[in-house]
Amino acid sequence: MPATVSPPASITALTLRAAELGGMTLAQLAARVAVPVPASQIRHKGWTGELLERALGAHSGSRPEPDFAHLGVELKTLPVNARGRPRESTYICVAALDGRAQSWEASLVRQKLACVLWVPVEAGPSLPLGERRVGTPFLWRPTAEDERQLRSDWEEIMEAVAIGRLDQISARQGRWLQLRPKAANARAQTPGFTDDGSPGATLPRGFYLRSLFTAQLLARRGGAQPPTTAAI
Known about the structure:
The chain is α+β, with helices and mostly antiparallel strands. Helix content is 26%, strand content 17%. It has a single domain (11-220), classed as ECO RV Endonuclease, Chain A (3-Layer(aba) Sandwich), CATH 3.40.600.10. The strands form 3 sheets. It has a 3-stranded mixed β-sheet, with helices on one face. Strands 2-8-5 form a 3-stranded antiparallel β-sheet. A two-stranded antiparallel sheet has the order 6-7. A hairpin with a 5-residue loop joins strand 6 and strand 7. The protein starts with 10 loop residues before the first helix and ends in a 12-residue tail after the last helix.
């Protein structure tokens, strides 16, 4: 059975625990917590994130709160290429599309991004899953300018949702934050608005951080380095 890791007692304990993972392969990490490594991620897309959650003692599951709710810290894996640059945008959370009034301060996006433990992980179709290495984790809190732009993006998107223009929102909207479909298939539906702006079922959407933004985060802490270094 998979090993159970107790939740960290403090942010310091969490960061120290995370630092121990730097340089490990996913196979080594999986062996530590007694989790099998799947042959591929085609049917296990969230496996790497779930592995890191288990290894670090996150127990929030799918609840709408940060992964380490008692610490106010969200855990995000960051797949990077051979040059140490993000390969894709980063999912944050599902978007509420029912038109209810919301504020940035009370939004789940802000809660999730208030404090993030980023864990870079090697990724690429030619690199076997078990051989991918964990980079150097780092704790991030948004600067005043980060929050200003994220809030601006969020408010622009949610204003379009509130006035029934969901169908006009594209992934090109927002400088750092974007809204994109988030569903296993087109049959998935959630309360929202139809294409003509009237209330009805629609395809679920999620908020994502653009890879240009996460690349900046890596650059700020000196993380845009080749994977031959500990930072990846």
